[in-house]
Amino acid sequence: MDKRLGSRSPVIRAVHLAKTLGTATVLQDVSFELGPGAALAILGPNGAGKTTLLKVLAGVWAPNGGELWRFGQLLPDGGHPDPRIGYLGHQSLLYPSLTLLENLRFYGRLWGIPRLSETIESVVDQVGLGWSLDDPVRTFSRGMLQRAAIARVLLTAPELVLLDEPYTGLDLPSRHVLDGWIRTFRSQGGTVLMITHHPDEAYRLVDAVAILHTGRFIWWSPTQEMPLEQLLTVYQRLVAPGGYSPSVNFG
Ligand SMILES: Nc1ncnc2c1ncn2[C@@H]1O[C@H](COP(=O)(O)OP(=O)(O)OP(=O)(O)O)[C@@H](O)[C@H]1O
């Protein structure tokens, strides 16, 4: 399996990455690379190490083995967040009692974002939340909260986004907003790596789908070389032997 997407110099490159948490080896051997504009979806059963991988790639946790290259540089100890990388985890990291505008101003000032008002206007526009800038975040629906969390991630104008189950709990309009944003982001050269439990959702948006199992990729395929039905069959066999029903009918 050649786990390489994009022909130009890679934005992110993992070589035999390993990570131990406590006494457990959660990532055993993960290698792949993504170039500008490429998109990869990672599927896998609960506990496979997907979130751990994202945290290592984001620089939240340092790996215990292997090499991590980001933007052409080998990280000396594997750690360090980078403003060029936007990481959307399971928490929004927004303050519920503050309005969306106050939240974005807070993070913008913290990170020293230039032309902050303009930037805020642009990011809320990208996620379609301009109309709720002055509402406290605690009043947001799940979909609005996810979109607001994405707006926060976009403040630093990342070149690579790492999205951990970004579609979870989103209604159809919010999914469409997220789909549209991912397409636009990619068309401008942005690189996307997302974790999902819904192969059908990821399929239309990415160049390749990988299955992580016990800390290593056990399957990887470009979407162009594989009909959706085949992906669903593989997913059911390797990840969800109990059965899987596509969550959305894409026709
Ligand atoms: N901070 C931690 N300390 C110790 N073990 C951890 C820690 N975080 C995760 N683990 C363990 O590492 C393994 C992988 O967890 P991880 O969250 O990366 O899996 P995942 O593939 O994202 O799962 P899910 O689909 O349930 O989100 C699990 O066995 C989990 O219990």
What distinguishing features does this structure have?
251 residues, alpha/beta, 6-stranded mixed β-sheet, 5-stranded mixed β-sheet, 7 helices, binds adenosine-5'-triphosphate, transmembrane transporter activity, P-loop_NTPase, nucleotide-binding
Task: Explain what the structure shows.
The chain has a six-stranded mixed β-sheet, sandwiched between helices. Strand 8, helix 5 (172-187) and strand 9 form a beta-alpha-beta unit. Helix 3 (116-126) crosses helix 4 (142-154). 30% of the residues lie in helices and 25% in strands. It is globular, with a radius of gyration of 18 Å. It has helices at 50-58, 100-110, 116-126, 142-154, 172-187, 199-203, 228-238; strands spanning 4-5, 12-21, 24-34, 39-43, 65-70, 73-74, 85-88, 160-164, 191-195, 208-213, 216-222. The protein contains seven helices and eleven strands. With 251 residues, the protein is α/β, with parallel strands linked by helices. It binds adenosine-5'-triphosphate.
